[in-house]
Amino acid sequence: MRFPFQLKPREIFDAVGFGLNAVDHLIVVPEYPSFDTKVRFLEHQQTPGGQAATTMVALQRLGLRTAYAGRFGSDAEGQFGFAAFAAEGVDHEFAEIVDGARNQVAFILIDARNGERTIIWDRDERLSYAADEAPLAIAARGRILHLDAHDPPACARLAHVAREAGTIVTADIDNIYDGLLDLLPLIDVLIGSREFPHRVTGIADERASLVELKARYGCGLVGLTKGAEGALIYCEGQFIEARAFPVPGGCRDTTGSGDAFHGGFLYGLLSGEDVETSLKLANAVAALKCRALGARTALPSKNELTDFLLGAQTSCLQ
Prior knowledge:
CATH class: Alpha Beta
Distance between the termini: 27 Å
CATH architecture: 3-Layer(aba) Sandwich
Largest sheet: 9 strands, mixed
Number of domains: 1
Shape: globular
Order of helices and strands: EEEHEHEEEEHEHEHHEEEHHH
Number of helices: 9
CATH superfamily: Ribokinase
Number of strands: 13
């Protein structure tokens, strides 16, 4: 199935992202601890993350031209996160360091048995964008504008500018924030967490909730990610479902797997692939990400992704 819209043939960047960055403190434990117990951790790492920022890094590693707008704190975590981000080659002209603000951080408990995680996070309010602070100059510089829908009024202003310029607006959303419902009609590709369509529509059935989401807000394509079960897309009156790939060597950490999924899906869209192939690329990038601790550590290069898919195809033929 072809995507139900046309990308601009060329722009300064392939994709620009607006939204969160974070510094993650990853704590690997033998198993998730019971209440009122003590457990010795197996490993600890500090790594960069954040939804929109990580998706831009994923696309950059796959060989595309990307830019990011968002706010970093001026503390040690902010300096670490900004330096790690700049080293990836993503254009950060519109990234800001907010003096006196603490960077967004997360403490993430990872169960060593399966790589599943529990996230405890905080975001300094000084990192938020009011609607009149939205960096409008970046909105139409990409063929795609990708949002994680934090600060929805600012996102909506960017989306308006992007759509007027023919830029496709995509979003990764996991929860409902103030002003979000005004943003949703401005999104062309809306793929959220498994719970998101239910939270918006009140419909528990996954397929019915996606149909309702599209009917209410008119997005060209809607979908949800399902972790180890893959993802489900609804487009042009049809459902497309694809299972996840096994993680090479076993899953070490699922942190950022959704951000990686979006990177792979947008890579397919930007490369002229159809919806089914883009979904396969999304699941492949997410699986490869889960090879190592951290949201970005194991994000693949284009060659790694190609080799992985060839290997998976060979396995299926045997």
